């Protein structure tokens, strides 16, 4: 039986057969609720976890922070793997379904660590952490398994949820489709922002007020609802088959360049006929930078390399010029990408700030609402949200009057200003901690690490707000910079690069904390990151981060100088024509993969 053409949409180079009864607005409640419940559940656990590790597992401050740094690193790396599996093998539906189930399993295990007395060491009864019983190997195995499962599950949900929602609405034959998709994106981002606010405030408050059993049970229950809601909508979803991943394309270029290493590169002014490109492509010859990669698109033997239709017989032995230039574009931005690692280190310092807030006066006003120590991160999120909401509508028009540019600051300037502000944030953090420590010692709390310091925790708000502003400038600037340098088909790689930078930043944070703890505790001295905040020197630790951040700013300036101008005349003309239906599909697909989602990918 012949298929109705109206029941098909084109996706890439293959036809996806869909029935008109699938997808549509009726599926959005399932998709958005799935993402909302997952965000509230997972991010609510991050905010307060340092206190759980210290109080229940008797970890030192440094070790607890290192566990969280590694957990965050894995959580930021796994979405890259999830996106690869989704694009190349399993498709978005299967990856999200597996992700929700694995996340639920991880949160259930974490709840068991709080619910079962045998899962944690005996209580300390007010003793110093050093005097408490250490956790057994089996207890740590259960804890770490729960964290690993949650990271793995998040890797399936986060890179695919928005794109999966867009799949349900994409209908190029509908003239209102772009408006419908834009409305969906707005609702999606609004739900994500609200869920993050709720997770950092309500979930943390429940943990503080009702204890860990209920505090972990609520996120597990929400994750159960997320899983059920997503699976209930299964009969209604459009489930597209996976396409070829860009990661596969990059691997093919590298393999082909190695396979063809015996070929001699032609002179710069050579016949374009020796290069392999698809018919109609504007890229008919590779650029001269990174010339060793040009061998990947060099036709060595037309009879063995090309079939009767003009296609490469083995894509792992011969790639197109476009594939080669895509990999070069990625390599070209790597130095500037590496400059973003240090700001990721600054962003990830939440754990120590929770410990500081815990021993400070956390009343919003004297005698008023008492903010949980783990909820102060909301000030960074509020600042980031305000910046994102006001930048295009208010700040850009004001800046354009002075810069004479329609976009205000250039992307490189935004990234650089973000890095500079992160330096200020770390300097403020060092000065505030110096003041807190001096106040505690004046009160005679040198040997009482849990004693309440007569200093308002509102002193922590400026550093959180500065970090939120730095993130709004640098993080969004990074993603937009990658978007400006890559073809539209590579836009999701920009988000992947940013997530990878956050992961590396967390690993570097762990390395710095471990190194500082080891070096400063030699000879029986008190570690700068001691369990006793009043006897340690966390202010010195923050000054180290400040110095490293300042050095990183100069490194960034060198990278910008080496990168050169981003003017249009220096850009490669990719195979994309403005205003075409394919471009619209790519643009909306890129939005669906998170290009315009700073909140989703920075926390």
Give the arrangement of secondary structure elements:
Blueprint: E1 8-11, E2 14-17, H1 28-57, H2 61-90, H3 92-115, H4 137-157, H5 161-169, H6 177-210, H7 212-232, H8 246-259, H9 302-305, H10 321-338, H11 341-347, H12 350-358, H13 378-403, H14 411-442, H15 461-485, H16 491-520, H17 538-563, H18 581-592, H19 598-601
Antiparallel strand pairs: 1-2
Helix pairs in contact: 1-2, 1-3, 1-4, 1-5, 1-6, 1-7, 1-12, 2-3, 2-4, 2-16, 3-4, 3-7, 5-6, 5-18, 6-7, 10-17, 11-14, 11-16, 11-17, 13-15, 14-15, 14-17, 15-16
Give a written overview of the molecule.
The structure is a single chain. The protein has 603 residues and is mainly alpha-helical. The chain folds into three domains: 203 residues, Growth Hormone, Chain: A (Up-down Bundle); 74 residues, no CATH class; 249 residues, Growth Hormone, Chain: A (Up-down Bundle), CATH 1.20.1250.20. 62% of the residues lie in helices and 1% in strands. The chain contains 19 helices and two strands. The chain has a two-stranded antiparallel sheet. Strand 1 and strand 2 form a beta hairpin. It is globular. 47% of the residues are buried. The N terminus and C terminus are likely disordered.
Rounded to an integer, what's the Rg over CA atoms?
26 Å
Helix and strand sequence = EEHHHHHHHHHHHHHHHHHHH
- Give the spatial strand order of the biggest sheet: 1-2
- The gross shape turns out to be globular
Reported CATH architecture of the largest domain: Up-down Bundle
Kindly provide the name of the CATH class of the largest domain. Mainly Alpha
- Report the total helices: 19
Query: Could you say which structural class the secondary elements and strand pairing correspond to?
Result: mainly alpha
Strand content is: under 5%
Which fold name fills CATH's third level, the topology of the largest domain? Growth Hormone, Chain: A
- Largest beta sheet, briefly? 2 strands, antiparallel
> Could you tell me how far the N terminus lies from the C terminus, measured between alpha carbons in angstroms?
50 Å
* The CATH fourth-level homologous superfamily of the largest domain: MFS general substrate transporter like domains
Uncertain runs with pLDDT below 50, 5 residues or more? 1-19, 577-603
- The figure for the number of domains is 3
User: Which range best describes the helical content: under 10%, 10-25%, 25-40%, 40-55%, 55-70% or over 70%?
Assistant: 55-70%
Mean pLDDT: 83
């Amino acid at each position: 039986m012949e298929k109705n053409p109206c029941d098909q949409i084109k996706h890439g180079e293959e036809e996806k057969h869909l029935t008109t009864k699938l997808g549509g607005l009726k599926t959005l409640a399932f998709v958005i609720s799935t993402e909302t419940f997952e965000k509230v559940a997972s991010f609510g656990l991050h905010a307060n976890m340092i206190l759980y590790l210290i109080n229940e597992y008797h970890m030192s401050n440094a070790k607890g922070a290192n566990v969280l740094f590694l957990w965050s690193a894995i959580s930021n790396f796994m979405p890259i793997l999830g996106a690869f599996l989704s694009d190349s093998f399993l498709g978005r539906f299967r990856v999200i379904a597996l992700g929700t189930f694995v996340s639920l399993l991880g949160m259930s295990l974490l709840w068991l660590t709080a619910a079962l007395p045998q899962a944690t060491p005996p209580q300390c009864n007010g003793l110093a952490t050093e005097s408490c019983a250490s956790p057994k190997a089996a207890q740590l195995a259960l804890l770490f398994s729960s964290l690993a499962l949650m990271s793995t599950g998040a890797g399936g949900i986060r890179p695919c949820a928005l794109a999966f929602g867009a799949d349900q609405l994409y209908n190029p034959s509908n003239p209102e489709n772009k408006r419908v998709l834009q409305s969906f994106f707005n609702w999606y981002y609004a739900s994500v922002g609200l869920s993050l606010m709720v997770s950092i405030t309500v979930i943390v408050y429940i943990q503080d007020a009702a204890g860990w059993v209920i505090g972990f049970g609520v996120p597990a229950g929400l994750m159960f609802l997320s899983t059920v809601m997503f699976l209930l909508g299964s009969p209604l979803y459009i489930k597209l088959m996976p396409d070829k991943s860009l990661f596969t394309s990059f691997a093919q270029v590298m393999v082909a360049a190695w396979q063809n290493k015996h070929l001699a590169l032609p002179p710069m002014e050579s016949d374009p006929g020796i290069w392999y490109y698809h018919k109609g492509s504007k890229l008919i010859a590779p650029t001269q930078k990174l010339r060793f990669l040009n061998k990947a698109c060099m036709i060595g033997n037309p009879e063995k390399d090309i079939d009767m239709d003009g296609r490469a017989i083995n894509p792992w032995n011969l790639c197109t010029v476009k594939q080669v230039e895509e990999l070069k574009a990625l390599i070209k931005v790597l130095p500037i990408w590496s400059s973003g690692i240090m700001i990721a280190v600054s962003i990830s310092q939440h754990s120590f700030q929770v410990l500081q807030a815990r021993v400070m006066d956390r009343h919003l006003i004297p005698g008023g609402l008492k903010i949980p120590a783990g909820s102060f991160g909301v000030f960074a999120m509020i600042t980031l949200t305000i910046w994102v909401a006001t930048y295009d509508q208010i700040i850009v028009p004001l800046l354009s009057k002075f810069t004479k540019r329609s976009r205000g600051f250039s992307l490189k300037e935004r990234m650089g200003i973000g890095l500079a502000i992160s330096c200020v944030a770390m300097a403020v953090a060092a000065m505030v901690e110096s003041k807190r420590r001096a106040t505690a010692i004046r009160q005679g709390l040198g040997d009482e690490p849990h004693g309440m310091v007569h200093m308002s925790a509102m002193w922590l708000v400026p550093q959180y707000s500065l970090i939120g502003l730095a993130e709004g400038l640098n993080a969004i600037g990074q993603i937009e910079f990658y978007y400006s340098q890559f073809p539209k088909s590579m836009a999701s790689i920009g988000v992947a690069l940013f997530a990878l930078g956050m992961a590396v930043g967390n690993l570097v944070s762990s390395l710095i904390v471990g190194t500082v703890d080891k070096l400063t505790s030699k000879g029986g001295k008190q570690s700068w990151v001691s369990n006793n905040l009043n006897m340690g020197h966390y202010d010195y630790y923050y000054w180290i981060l400040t110095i490293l951040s300042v050095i990183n700013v100069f490194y960034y300036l060198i990278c910008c100088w080496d990168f050169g101008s981003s003017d249009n005349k220096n850009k490669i003309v990719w195979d994309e024509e403005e205003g075409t239906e394919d471009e619209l599909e790519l643009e909306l697909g890129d939005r669906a993969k998170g290009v315009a989602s700073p909140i989703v990918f920075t926390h």
